[in-house]
């Protein structure tokens, strides 16, 4: 665990902000002042208690008492800079406590702060020095009221206690930082997943708009072109073409309104309240194409169209719709053969085949995105789609889709 992963472990980061205009100088918070003052008073209290015990001995020279008082006060004041230099303060106070019992309280607090704010290696080094100093202090400055062994054991236990406590506090803070980072990362990942899902939904809706509207608008283009190039057509044919144009425009607007409704309703899906095409409605699509003037033959060799999976049936419908639209665009007047076969366990096969156009015609512009979208649909449904021109100039679209048994 590095310091850069946990910036609050750096000495200058323990006070949360730097003072404006004074870079590198940490600004203490109210909590920092309260904690530092409390620890200073605790160290001073321990030092005064030890100093009182030394005075009660009445064998200590006056000069030594004055030195003890001054060094003890300096040790307590050193705690105010322990945040900036925790290793230095802890090491100096550990060495000082060997000859100066009054600094013992400040030394323990410095060891605790070191264990909280620094990794294990410097804590282990300074802690080993403190453990080695535990028997040295009663040896150089013995306490008449306590034996050497007892003083040594108490010193060792106090050092181990404050170091262990400090490392527990450090581990808990690191755990909190880790959990917060994981929470932030989880929120970011959730936002990315939501954004990706939204993008995929929009792509699916865009493909749906292409598949649906291309069919309707091609009918409009074909019949409007027929009226343009045959102004002398019989009134019955003109009326029929106008009726197809009107119905196609109305259905295109209705389809567009339904798709936009899905866009406006984030909680809706493609499987909402609006009816979806299935394998059963394939006959209606063929009838619609025939009413538009196409010569379409349907070979429907599926025993139970209603039993086909909804997604598979919808994919078959969209493939047939796009293939009929392309045939109407690029081979007007040519007969189109649609073959659907299969069943549970063997899958579904749909093939749309048309020969080359018989004569010249007014081409309808296309982008080629429809066949790409159909290939993606087939792959997403677990199948495959092949398409391409025939040697005689015709065109074939063939798809194979799964149908579980």
TrEMBL record:
Membrane-spanning parts: 33-54, 63-81, 87-116, 146-168
Entry EC number(s): 2.7.13.3
Residue ranges of domain Histidine kinase/HSP90-like ATPase in the record: 314-403
UniProt xrefs under InterPro entries: DUF7134, HATPase_C_sf, HATPase_dom, Sensor_HK_TwoCompSys, Sig_transdc_His_kin_sub3_dim/P
Keyword Repeat assigned: no
Record domain Signal transduction histidine kinase subgroup 3 dimerisation and phosphoacceptor: where: 202-267
Record-given protein name: histidine kinase
Residue ranges of domain DUF7134 in the record: 32-173
An example Gene Ontology molecular-function term: kinase activity
Organism field: Streptomyces silvae
Keyword check for Transmembrane helix: yes
Highest classification ranks of the organism: Bacteria, Bacillati, Actinomycetota, Actinomycetes, Kitasatosporales
Known catalytic reactions: ATP + protein L-histidine = ADP + protein N-phospho-L-histidine
Keyword line: ATP-binding, Kinase, Membrane, Nucleotide-binding, Phosphoprotein, Transferase, Transmembrane, Transmembrane helix, Two-component regulatory system
């Amino acid at each position: 665990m590095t310091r850069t992963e946990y910036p609050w472990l750096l000495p200058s980061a323990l006070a949360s902000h730097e003072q404006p205009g004074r870079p590198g100088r940490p600004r203490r918070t109210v909590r920092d002042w309260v904690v530092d003052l409390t620890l200073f008073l605790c160290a001073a209290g321990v030092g005064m208690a030890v100093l009182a015990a030394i005075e009660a001995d009445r064998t200590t020279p006056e000069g030594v008492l004055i030195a003890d008082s001054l060094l003890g006060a300096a040790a307590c004041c050193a705690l105010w800079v322990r945040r900036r230099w925790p290793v230095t303060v802890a090491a100096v106070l550990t060495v000082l406590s060997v000859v100066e019992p009054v600094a013992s309280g400040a030394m323990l607090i410095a060891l605790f702060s070191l264990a909280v704010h620094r990794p294990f290696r410097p804590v282990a080094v300074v802690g080993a020095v403190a453990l080695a100093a535990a028997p040295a202090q009663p040896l150089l400055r013995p306490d008449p009221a306590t034996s050497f062994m007892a003083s040594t054991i108490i010193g060792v236990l106090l050092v181990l206690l404050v170091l262990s406590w400090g490392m527990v506090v450090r581990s808990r803070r690191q755990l909190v930082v880790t959990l917060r980072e994981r929470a932030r990362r989880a929120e970011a990942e959730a936002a990315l997943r939501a954004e990706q899902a939204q993008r995929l939904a929009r792509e699916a809706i865009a493909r749906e708009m292409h598949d649906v509207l291309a069919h309707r608008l091609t009918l409009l283009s074909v019949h409007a072109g027929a009226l343009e190039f045959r102004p002398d057509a019989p009134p019955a044919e003109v009326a029929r073409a106008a009726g197809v144009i009107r119905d196609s425009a109305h259905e295109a607007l209705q389809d567009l309104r339904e798709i936009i409704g899905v866009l406006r309703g984030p909680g809706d899906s493609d499987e909402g309240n609006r009816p979806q095409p299935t394998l059963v409605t394939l006959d209606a699509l063929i009838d619609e194409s025939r009413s538009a003037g196409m010569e379409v033959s349907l070979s429907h060799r599926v025993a139970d169209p209603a039993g086909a999976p909804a997604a598979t049936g919808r994919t078959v419908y969209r493939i047939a719709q796009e293939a009929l639209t392309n045939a109407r665009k690029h081979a007007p007047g040519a007969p189109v053969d649609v073959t659907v076969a299969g069943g549970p366990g063997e899958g579904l096969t749909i093939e749309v085949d048309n020969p080359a156009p018989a004569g010249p015609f007014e081409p309808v512009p296309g982008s080629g995105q429809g066949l790409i979208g159909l290939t993606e649909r087939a792959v997403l449904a677990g199948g495959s789609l092949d398409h391409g021109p025939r040697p005689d100039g015709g065109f074939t679209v063939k798809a194979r889709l799964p149908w579980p048994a």
